[in-house]
Design goal:
Two copies of one chain form a homodimer.
Chain A lengths: L8 E5 L3 H14 L2 E13 L3 E13 L5 E4 L8 E3 L4 E7 L2 E8 L4 E16 L5 H4 L4 H10 L9 E9 L2 E8 L5 E6 L6 H18 L6 E6 L4 H9 L3 E4 L6
Parallel strand pairs in A: 11-12, 12-13
Antiparallel strand pairs in A: 1-8, 2-3, 2-8, 3-4, 4-5, 6-7, 7-8, 9-10, 10-11
Helix pairs in contact in A: 4-5
The structure holds a DNA duplex.
Chain lengths: 246, 246
DNA sequence: CAATGTATTTCGGAG
DNA sequence: CTCCGAAGTACATTG
């Protein structure tokens, strides 16, 4: 989606109130991201209530109905509105006013600009299409094509090998000939995945009566802190890998 | 603080990589907020690890060292860096690259732009503080100002009194001189809060060797059915009270 | 729909 | 400094 003239981004510095309102409202109508910067006051009324006196702030309005007000400090927005709100940008006595509200729970955020020094709108091509292309099967293929991605000299022996605890994603050997169980996850893993690998390892150790401990490796794009700790406790490993190559 | 020509905001659409890098780096040097928008990939490595394939994103760099990467969805940034990082914007084989890192814990965020469609810097002055009402502290003040809101002749003796189970919100006496433990919640409470009061009451009874049973009162705007049952079972009470007077 | 648990939680305050 | 708990927590998962 783009503007009438095909430009996916519009930007003006020191616009008049009318220009700023027009850019913002047209951007919202188009489903674009809208940003406004300038001296403003902020009022919130809803689950709690807050007011913010005049100051320079950066306001971002997203097409999914979220709103963010940022100052020059802190990772958190100083005020915000969750997704699902209705954004409205209008003029009130010559001032640009942003109002963002949602019905349940009743919440309303109002930003009143003394002056807008910058207004812009950005058309975003949804990246979810791009990131959802990687399935666990893609990840499996990727590793079978290049086992070194797990670790040097890793050798897959079979996929979907059965154990009393279920089927192992990839079953193989490391450089020293030790049995390796690889569990694949297409996205960030938590403690549940650690338990899963652990059950496979335990089941195989009982099944094979193997003297050497079986190695468990969890392959996923990322891992939670807690899961990483658990994994370390159980002497297992994590390998960061995306389901698809860039 | 402003730019050389006195303009507190600089903005360009469809800049060359060199122009984008120059605006960003000069903005950072000046202590300004910097935003970049365009098609990019994002890599994070630190407490966790993640990568994002190509997509349109909005990158905000703050002078306090925080970095935020937003897509068009969600209130939360899709990637970020906490305050205290060093931001760097440089060119690599014609691409604008943002690198934001901090030493402890070792964390690094890298945004590599295929194309920057918008670059801007904003000089911010924000003198005012946010005032927030409707918090648990407001509820505490409200009761200390008018203890009868809990019940007639209730007398607060101390706040944050320590017990082996943690600090009690308000510790006091009722009309008959019996010890009362008041637990405050700024919003609707569930069974967890009942367990909390119960632990305080138990801990205090053991601590004080009190003959008379200690009373436990849960003060909140409302309570779930299940929590009300539990509270009744344990012989404790609920008082409905908003954190702020209407 | 509500209830539950995690988070690169963030943020503040107490010790 | 760390630990601990609240948050307008946000967010995903599950029943």
């Amino acid at each position: 989606m783009t503007t009438a003239d095909g430009t996916p981004v519009q930007s003006t510095t020191h616009p008049t109130a009318e220009e700023a309102q027009a850019i913002a409202q047209r951007g919202l109508d188009r489903g674009a991201m809208v940003t406004l910067f300038g001296r403003c006051t902020v009022d919130y009324e809803g689950r709690a209530a807050s007011t913010l006196g005049p100051g320079d702030r950066h306001v971002m309005l997203k097409p999914d109905g979220s709103a963010l007000v940022h100052t020059d400090e802190g990772q958190q927005p100083v005020n915000w509105q969750p997704p699902g709100c209705d954004h409205e940008v209008f003029l009130d006595e010559g001032h640009v006013v942003v109002r963002s509200e949602r019905p349940a729970p009743e919440e309303e955020l109002t930003v009143t600009f003394e002056e807008v020094t910058h207004a812009a709108s950005f058309d975003v091509t949804d990246p979810t299409d791009l990131s959802l292309t990687g399935t666990e099967e893609d990840l499996r293929q990727r590793i079978l094509d290049d086992p070194d991605l797990v670790e040097p000299e890793f050798t897959p022996l079979s996929t979907e090998r059965n154990t009393p605890a279920g089927a192992v994603d990839i079953y193989g050997e490391d450089a020293d000939g030790r049995t390796v169980v690889v569990e694949l996850k297409r996205r960030r893993v938590g403690p549940d995945a650690v338990g899963q690998v652990d059950r496979y390892v335990g089941a195989l150790e009982r099944d094979l009566h193997d003297d050497a401990a079986i190695r468990g490796i969890l392959v996923a794009p990322s891992i939670t802190d807690r899961a990483r700790e658990l994994l370390a406790e159980k002497g297992m490993e994590f390998v960061a890998l995306e389901p698809t190559a860039e």
